[in-house]
Amino acid sequence: MTDRLLGSADVAIIGAGLVGCATAYYLAKGGVDVAVIDRSSINREASGANAGSLHLQIYIHPHFPDDWIDRIRPTIELMREAQKTWATMEKRLGTDCGIRLGGGLWVAETDEEMRLIEKKVVAENALGVMSQVHDRTGMLKLAPYLSEHVMGGSFLAGEGFANPLLVTPAHVDAARRHGARFITGATVTAIVREGSRFVIETSRGRFSAGQVVAAAGAWTASIGRMVGLNLPVTGSIAQVSVTEGRPNIMLDHMLQHVGKGLTLKQSRQGTFIIGGGWPGLYDRRRDHKMPALDSIVGNAWVAARTVPDIARAQLVRAWGGMGSGSIDGLPIIGESSVVRGFHVAYVPLGFTMGPITGQIFSEKFLTGAASLPLAPYAPDRFLDRAA
Ligand SMILES: Cc1cc2nc3c(=O)[nH]c(=O)nc-3n(C[C@H](O)[C@H](O)[C@H](O)COP(=O)(O)OP(=O)(O)OC[C@H]3O[C@@H](n4cnc5c(N)ncnc54)[C@H](O)[C@@H]3O)c2cc1C
Prior knowledge:
Elements: E1 5-14, H1 18-29, E2 34-37, H2 46-49, E3 53-54, H3 68-72, H4 74-93, E4 104-108, H5 111-126, E5 132-135, H6 136-142, E6 152-156, E7 160-161, H7 164-177, E8 181-183, E9 188-194, E10 197-202, E11 205-214, H8 220-226, E12 233-245, E13 254-257, E14 262-266, E15 271-275, E16 281-283, E17 288-290, H9 293-306, E18 315-326, E19 332-335, E20 342-346, H10 350-367
Parallel strand pairs: 1-2, 1-11, 2-8, 4-13, 11-20
Antiparallel strand pairs: 3-7, 4-6, 5-6, 9-10, 10-11, 12-15, 12-18, 13-14, 14-15, 16-17, 19-20
Helix pairs in contact: 1-7, 1-10, 4-10
């Protein structure tokens, strides 16, 4: 830390991933003097390294806890609103974000997987996410490229994918047009209350802010500890693989396998993008996130088992990134009642949910009320656990 004054703003957002940049966009558009501080560069971590899937149906797996749907039920409304945000994003931001909303499929191979999909669809429909269950015949009508192993699944119109290399920069450009500032290469090391303001100590100097928003993804817990708050978010490495371009068969769909860990899309260049949360490797010394060979092989096997055409495509690239999750699977959005002026904007599946999180955070910040209930996401729910 140096004593140099780096700058000041009414609101400082820590983290220039999609969540921080979307929040900056909505706050700046609402007239707030806002600066985003990042230790690295914009979109450098999970927001630029993810698979680009828009998860607007519940993300589920047979190994998740039995009460998973009940636990994350409030986020169904968030998914419903996120769908509208993605459908209008390119018009709102005035630029190409690589958005393709051909619809989303979950596929099942077993009765048990099919039951899980049916349960998921009931919960979604009750809160306005209008997914539909289909048997094998119905799935093949929607997606003739599916293999003989698929026995059925669900479909949601309006699901799809976007380009992670375009979405955050599009929010940054729009935020800048409204006056937001971006400070990169400044690692936040401490946050100190001084009178009615916060002093944010960084590797490049001190930054003074009236209010602070922690939007640091997998590093949210470490920012919380700087003000004595417990924000239980943990990181883990996930990976993505990409094939060479092939004739386009996937109709702008985003496909997921409920039992075997697969997300699959085909880009406009014809490349298959293969993900699904398979674990990668982390070299802590160099902060290097890498794909693991056995995960590449396993993930590609599931992809080719589900969509046989992929067996003929050559893999050309794989990479790892720092994913994250909260201890209860829910977002953490809002102001701490203990450290007034300190806010959190954290959401799992933050590529899909980043823009809507920025939007509802800002609604609450600007008007005192959000269009969706934020109580389930309050940072205060972790107060009884030590930081
Ligand atoms: C391989 C992979 C695939 C994924 N696929 C999908 C997908 O298909 N769909 C989906 O919805 N989600 C997906 N995710 C999850 C999604 O990418 C993340 O949830 C989302 O990008 C998180 O956004 P964020 O802005 O919260 O965090 P990040 O993008 O990680 O940004 C956090 C920022 O905080 C900064 N920061 C941290 N500590 C400090 C500090 N002390 N000082 C200053 N700055 C700091 C970091 O440098 C970083 O830029 C995937 C994740 C991975 C890793």
